[in-house]
Amino acid sequence: MNKRLRKNIRLLGMIVCISLFTGCSNKKTDIASQTQQETLTVEENQSNKENTIGESLIAQVVNYEEDDYYTSWENTVAATIELKEDQISFEGNGVKVEESTLTIEKAGTYVISGTLADGSIIVDAADKAAVRLVLNGVDINCTTTAPVYVKQAGKVVLSLEEGTTNRFTDGESYILEDASSDEPNATIFSKDDLTINGKGSLEVIANYNNAITSKDTLKLMEGTLQIEAVDDGVMGKDAVIVKTGNVQITAKGDGIKATNDTDETKGFVAIEDGNFNIVAGADGIQAKTNVYIAEGTYTVETGGESANAVKKQEQNQVAGPMGKGQTKVSTTATQVEDTTATTTTENTDESTSYKGIKGSKAIYISGGTFTLNTADDSIHSNDTIAISGGDMTLTSGDDGIHADTQLNIGEVKLTITKSYEGLESSEINITSGEINVMASDDGVNISGGNDASAINGRPGQNSFANTEDGKLTISGGTLFVDASGDGLDANGSIEMSGGTVVVNGPTNDGNGALDYDGSFNITGGVFIAAGSAGMAQVPSSSSTQPSIAMTYSANKQAGEMIHLADSNGNALLTFAPTKAYRSVVISIPEIKTGESYSFYTGGSVAGNATNGLYETTAAYTPEGEAVSFTPTDIVTYLSESGVTTGNSGFGPGGNGGGGRGEKPDKGAATQDGTTPPAIPDESNRPALPEGTMPSEGTMKQGGEGMTPPEKPTGEKGANGTPPEKPSTEGNLDTTTAPSENSSAQ
């Protein structure tokens, strides 16, 4: 890797995030050319929206050499080796045979075929050229060490001859030259660069530890790999690079991993294409720095799937759901030593991680089909995630996608069928795509929100780079959220300038379909949020696109229609919430101040709908009288009897902290973590005139002695698991109205 490339790699994350997710041009550009122009300004990069993340960045970090690609060996000078159960015969130079051990001592090409009942191949070539082993139908079992052990070589290439099946298996214990080094510790183990190419197949059964390990870079160029391992499946210290291939891995540890954490230009996984089926006891694909994925098909299960979500295993130090952490026996000729697989030098922090795809620094995905079913986060980074394409179905025991610092989502089809929280980061930018989120707590969570979900609040206990000034930005695409907690929860602000957002929020009054601390400015797009009313909020009065907020006197049932029409009866919006609701907030470009509208509840409709949102051409039949209104402010408050009064009591963009009507802090809790704090005392608060609505962010005092509802207990259980949600029947409070920018919960 050249010095200039090393220098530019540090710029890639920032440039990709800016160029992909803040611009508006449809012209594809080349990241490689951008990174060479170190004087590019932010504004110049904002016009580059649709870079092909995977291919461009992989080209930056991967260098394919000529001998990485398969070439025919038949017209080359090659030694031939035949394995005969307990004997080895050969023709050519550079080979030494001792009983059932074959040692390759020189660079060159060696064609190997046959079976060894208990033997091994050792590569010990001092010269820096490549050693190529053509596997032409090989079956080697070794009970005491690695069947393939590369001690030294410039590079080793395993070529899988087309039409052949090759198999390597090891025993449950090794006799090591130096037990303190624990090497070799894989069925195929190399201290140097290792490449696997060819269109044949390779089966690796690891009974001792890992299946395939390279202490440098491991490249999988093509072929079919079937791997079973008691610990990790495929591991490269500096990098794991996949050109293409069919890879099936069943591992009690990690599926695919790169482990170098001392060099920011290494420790990455880069996959251009291929078909992957991974069942892992720990992480599916994980890298100490970055994960790059351009294309491919990925079916990944981790930790016993989402039903076996993490249960704070750090408290009792138990092994993983699939048994990772089993006893591994290393022996010398005179001593037996018991160690734990999860405490090897390369794998000290993975025993409690069950993520689908994990990159400690960043994850870049530009395409592919993903079906991930994980006990922990399906996709996770301790820093940044950028997704610009692909088709994803995620089923998670914790977060669907989590990035500590920034999550950028572009042209992807993303379905999160199950999660604790769907999308979570300190900053989330959505520019396009089709996103569907199902969450048992918050649908979209910024900086942990206000429910302590990032601190001792759930199994994963994810942390954030910033917990105060997080931001959700939506400029395009479609986002459908079904959340039992908050729908959109921002411990910071929300900006929406385009796209469509539909939230089917909570049915309990301890959460809200919309929840933010700073401001929520809407300048464009379609926003609909339906849910309970106890913690309901509305967009900020500093928005330029008007909103309406309807609060009902009693619960409306799931599926009960909402319809908005203009003064001529033209349909502007028809929506059927999927759950019971009492508060509805709507902001669409068609709503203008000074014009008249009709708001209907109930009725029937004939037409096509997506997640409850009907096309405007759908034929709507009303039931009952409409609520007629003419907006005069950015936020118009409605009840079943018409327009009600609202005041901007906390000022535009204000927090309202400590002000009257402040909502209880969901983030705080009693010591046992089960009882939320009490509602602030409002006994000295003056009564409101009868028939008026409270100011934005205040609790309504409907009559003498009426107090706000208590927040449901058990929001965060003492054992760190999500609470059981209260019944939807009769649980939606009738004493509150949506507030703009009350202390967001």
From TrEMBL:
InterPro entries linked to this entry: Cthe_2159
Biased composition (Polar residues): 728-745
Superkingdom of the source species: Bacteria
Region (Disordered): 315-353, 641-745
Pfam family, one: Cthe_2159
Compositional bias of kind Low complexity: 329-353
Regions of compositional bias (Gly residues) in chain numbering: 648-659
Protein name in the entry: Dockerin type 1
Organism: Cellulosilyticum lentocellum (strain ATCC 49066 / DSM 5427 / NCIMB 11756 / RHM5)
